[in-house]
Amino acid sequence: MKIGLIGNPNVGKSTIFNALTGMHQHTGNWPGKTVVKASGVKKYQGKTYLIEDLPGTYSLKAHSKEEEVTRDFVHSNNYDALIVVCDASALERNLILALQVLNVTNKVILCINLIDEAKKKKIEINYEKLEKILKIPIVPVIARKKKGLDNLLESISKINKNNSKSKLNTFEISNKAREIALEVVTYHNKDCFKKDRIIDKIVTSKYLSIPIMLLMLLFIFWLTIVFTNYFSDILYNFLFSFEKPLLNFLEFLHIPVTIINMLVYGLFRVLAWVVSVMLPPMAIFFPLFTLLEDLGYLPRIAFCLDKCFKKCASCGKQALTMAMGFGCNAVGVTGARIIDSPRERLMAILTNVFVPCNGRFPLIISMITMFLVTTGTSLLKALILTLFIVLGIFITFVVTKILSKTLLKGIPSSFTLELPSYRRPEILKIIIRSIFDRTIFVLKRAVLASIPAGIIIWLMANVMINGNTLLEICSNFLNPFAKVMGLDGVILLAFLLAFPANEIVIPIIIMSYLSLGQLIETPDLNVLKTLFIENGWTTLTAINVILFSLIHFPCLTTVLTIKKETGSLKWTFLSIVIPTITGIIICILSTQIYNLVM
Amino acid sequence: MIFMISLNDLNLDKEAKVIKVKANENIKNRFLDIGLIPGTIIKPVLISPGKDMVAYMIKGAVIAIRKEDTENIMVEEL
Questions:
Q1: What string of DSSP letters covers A356-404?
Q2: Structural domain of residue A66, as residue ranges?
Q3: A84 — phi, psi (to 5°)?
Q4: How many domains does chain A have?
Q5: Claim to verify: residue A456 and residue A310 sit in the same structural domain
Q6: Do residues A88 and A112 touch, judged by C-beta distance below 8 A?
Q7: Same domain (yes/no): A476, A510
Q8: How far does the CA of residue A344 sit from the closest CA of chain B (Å)?
Q9: Which of A135, A507, A541, A591 has its CA 20 to 30 A from that of A61?
């Protein structure tokens, strides 16, 4: 049995999908979270159901790329049932899509989700009457609490295949939706949206909107840093408690000393550093950001910032793709499908990398902790971090503006943006899910990419050409240019070698410095700073590492995604060149300014 | 006699009935999707800080549209 889940954006299709299949599609309270089709399997009462989660759409006339997926699926007729998911609080609007679908097929079940929210707003729906009018099975559910989902599968057998398809035109559909809604929906409280509007008036007010946005960011960063300070050391000590047993074990196996040294002091120690530096900030930042997503705040940001984006001939929805970029830039690039205008979509894709992804956060935070705010409070660190993020956003605007005047000339297009009702986030679920889905994923990528990188570094440090190691030759070659940028050859090389995964910039730097001679005696996190300083780092180096990490070429995954999304080598090439040149310019500028002032 | 005004001239929190929708084909289709057609009841509920977008309550959902796109939507205040 093949079943498609279709519906307006943000009505909970993915939540139903997850509840049915036990999978973990990312969900969030904002329209456009799902842009590609996801499939999963559900076994129920001896039957196997293949369930497809389709991107949300307001109609079957696709305007944007993600909506085409849904339209094509509905017209393919290659399914046993279509479940049209509706938001109980906005039934009339949702019925428009349902009626359009009924024009194409009669294998339809109407699933009315979020009935608990509607109940809170004192909205009553007469399901029996609705079933009589539409002549299709109606199933009320609360997907978040997994209520009513079994009925959904059972009702598939109730689909009346003898129903004829309707033949309504667009206006008839809209009118019919209104008629039906008038008959079956009763509003017992005219002011049911009052609470949302009061919050909205505050978070979108002229003077408070931007400060609230920044405070929210600052608060998240502050919590992240406090958490990181506390857990990095604990984690580090915990991991290092394994060093001695590991050493003994390898000696017990009679493995040659050089290999033991390489494995324990090289690989194991670097991995322990990576995990203890990276895991805490990721484990806390991602759930916190997901909370914001679930709350429904992100579309309000898009609403508030639209004016700024319009000035750059783009649209507010770019703010949503940027928000996605905080998690992963590749996701942000795919997410740009929610933008209808191809020109604006390209601008969002090309500038997404200016938002630091989860893999780059730990680097920025550790640089701030080690070099910029060594004695200050976590709040000060968070403030500095916020400043860097704001700089990234500012550069996004500048580059978007330049693009709209040069390569991607055009005027801002039209768009509509739904502001969903605020929902109470399920905190515990978010924490568990984001740790398992995101944190472990990113960390695994970092660890897996570190190992081959470690081998490459080891090889480069041991292959001799004319008496110099390959590592020295490469870093010496890059050094003059790197110095102009206020970095050094090793750092620049690390950024280049970390192309497969941004997470491993710091590990590569550590490994390179270690292989260039400095051996670290005591295992301590603070020793990292000593290692950097011994290799000539100053505050300026740290600042430029942060800046270049914030503004440089996207990682391999993102580049491949850009190639897939744009289908063009030219834009893929530019997506690498534009941020790299910007980053180089910014670093040179910061070096000049620093040298002038200091 | 119906007294029509542009949707942009409708005050915040005032309900109105849509009479005419004039817009280019692209955005008109968008309006159709969200149910913004003649006869629909519409209520502006929120203005963006930059004053370039207004969010309307349309059929139980809040949808933000740019002002230049709603200029030629004619409504009758209720």
A1: PPTTTHHHHHHHIIIII-SSS-HHHHHHHHHHHHHHHHHHHHHHHHHHH
A2: 2-192
A3: -90, 115
A4: 2
A5: yes
A6: yes
A7: yes
A8: 15
A9: A135
Predicted complex ipTM: 0.94
Question: How much is the pTM?
Answer: 0.87
Range from A227-241, A308-322, A456-470 that averages highest in pLDDT: A308-322
Answer yes or no: are the C-beta atoms of A339 and A413 closer than 8 Å. no
- B34 by DSSP, 3-state: which? coil
Tell me what pLDDT residue B60 has.
Answer: 83
Query: Do A12 and A87 have their domain in common?
Result: yes
d(CA A583, CA A553): 9
Domains of chain B, each with CATH number or no CATH:
4-77 (2.30.30.90)
Q: How many CB atoms lie within 10 A of CB A241?
A: 9
Instruction: Give A428's contacts (C-beta < 8 A, 6+ positions apart).
Output: none
A444-477 residue pLDDT tens: 877 777 777 777 777 787 788 888 888 889 999 9
In a domain, A201, yes or no: no
- Residue A371 phi, psi (nearest 5): -120, -35
Please give the residue of chain A at the shortest CA–CA distance from B58: A93
Least confident segment among A141-150, A185-194, A321-330, A578-587: A185-194
A249 and A145 together in one domain = no
The reply to whether A233 and A166 lie within a common domain is no
Is A561 within the bounds of a domain? yes
Contact B27 A414 (CB under 8 A): yes
* Residues in chain A within 8 Å Cβ distance of B37: 171, 174
Residues of B in contact with A206 (CB under 8 A): 49
Tell me which chain B residue has its CA closest to the CA of residue A93: B59
CATH of the domain at A180: 3.40.50.300
Instruction: Give the mean pLDDT of A8-34.
Output: 82
Q: Which residues of chain B are at the A interface, by a Cβ-Cβ cutoff of 8 Å?
A: 23-24, 26-27, 29-35, 37, 39-40, 45-53, 55, 57-66, 68-69
Same domain, A451 and A546: yes
Partner-chain contact B55 A308, CB within 8 Å: no
- Is B62's CB within 8 Å of A418's CB? yes
pLDDT score recorded for residue A414: 84
Q: How is residue A263 annotated by DSSP?
A: I
Q: Of A160, A192, A224, which residue sits at a domain end?
A: A192
Asked if A173 and A232 sit in the same domain, the reply is no
- What is the Cα–Cα distance from A266 to A458, expressed in whole angstroms? 9
